[in-house]
Design a protein that fits this description.
12 helices, Kinase-like_dom_sf, ATP binding, 2 domains, protein kinase activity, Transferase(Phosphotransferase), domain 1, 333 residues, Protein kinase domain-containing protein, two-stranded antiparallel ribbon, Prot_kinase_dom, Phosphorylase Kinase, domain 1, alpha+beta
């Protein structure tokens, strides 16, 4: 009988087109990522690590290796959920093209003895985007400075992707970990939300509350951070922080003592109040661009309301970005 590795090589020869089978072997994914080599790492998230997978025909995959023994459902449910996620198509979400789920036995040293431990290895394969994640461009000074038009395009694209997840599916899909590193960019600076289905895979979306609070300081809404409450308002809060970071080009600087990044938010309120403050940061800004920046700051600060009932919906946000009158934002004007 052929080994998993030889089946992977056979698969490679058969798949000369970009389309892949929905399920791949672990040996095959080890091969194309050089056994998950550190020099193939593309980035990390709260749920695992991305690796660059280079196929024999030159095609590249972004292979996400989920943390070992993540709280995933049984095989059948996992496959069903992943299959549903692979069917989702939108310009502003990453394309999930295949997956892997295999049981492995590893030796673990405990109290001086080696013990056989059963591990479920779970991996998700996405279409690779060469520009990488948004955080690489916002905060890395070695990259070219992003002009305001690109920043605004990115903000609108993220919002459109979030509207798809919140409003256009059979039930709202809460991302739960929306951060700059989970937003990828294509060659035309079109943003695409990644990691958008992990909350369903981990079963969190079947609950209103969770005890397993996972995320990055600065992006977690207070009702989730302190109470484990899961609603679309969680993503809206995260979006507000991301918009402030896109507008300012600065990290929010959250830490254990300032988990809500209040110092950063207060600094934005102080340093971006007037038209002169804004044009000082963007000297070549047109009058139309100035209004866009001001609208984005108003939106972001409203998204960061501690009371989730005072936050706007994603539809309110998109209407405001499109220049429409939206009552919920008036008090922040």
């Amino acid at each position: 009988m052929a080994s998993d590795a030889s089946r992977g090589e056979s698969l490679e020869r058969q798949q000369s087109l970009p389309t892949l089978p929905s399920k791949l072997t672990l040996d095959y994914l080890k091969k194309i990522t050089n056994d998950f080599s550190p020099d193939r790492e593309l980035g990390h998230s709260a749920f695992g690590t991305y690796y660059k997978g280079i196929r024999g025909n030159g095609d590249i995959l972004a292979v996400k290796k989920l943390a070992e023994n993540s709280p995933l459902p049984r095989e059948k449910t996992f496959v069903n959920e992943v299959t549903n996620l692979m069917a989702l198509q939108h310009e502003n979400i990453t394309e999930l093209v295949s997956f892997c789920r295999e049981a492995q036995i590893k030796l673990d040293q405990r109290e001086g003895r080696y013990v056989a431990v059963h591990i479920d290895e779970s991996l998700l394969c996405y279409k690779y985007l060469s520009k990488g994640s948004l955080d690489l461009h916002l905060f890395d000074e070695t990259h070219n400075k992003i002009d305001w038009d690109k920043r605004f395009k990115i903000i609108k694209g993220i919002c459109q992707g979030l509207r798809f997840l919140h409003k256009e599916l059979d039930r709202p899909l809460v991302h739960m970990n929306l951060v700059p590193s989970s937003i990828w960019l294509d060659d035309n600076w079109v943003p695409k939300i990644a990691d958008f289905g992990l909350s369903r895979l981990f079963g969190e979306q079947t609950q209103v509350y969770t005890k397993n609070v996972v995320g990055q300081n600065g992006y977690m809404a207070p009702e989730y951070l302190f109470n484990g409450e899961i609603t679309t308002g969680l993503d809206i809060y995260s979006l507000g922080m991301i918009i402030l970071e896109i507008v300012t080009g600065e990290r929010n600087g959250a830490n254990r003592e300032d988990r809500a990044a209040t110092k950063f938010v207060d600094k934005v309120r102080q340093d971006w109040k007037t038209d002169d403050d804004i044009t000082c940061k963007y000297p070549s800004l047109t009058d139309f661009g100035l209004e866009q920046v001001k609208a984005c700051i108003v939106i972001a600060l409203k998204c960061l309301e501690a009371d989730q009932n005072k936050r706007p919906s994603i539809e309110d946000i998109i209407d405001k970005l499109n220049g429409k009158f939206v009552p919920i934002f008036q008090q922040h004007e």
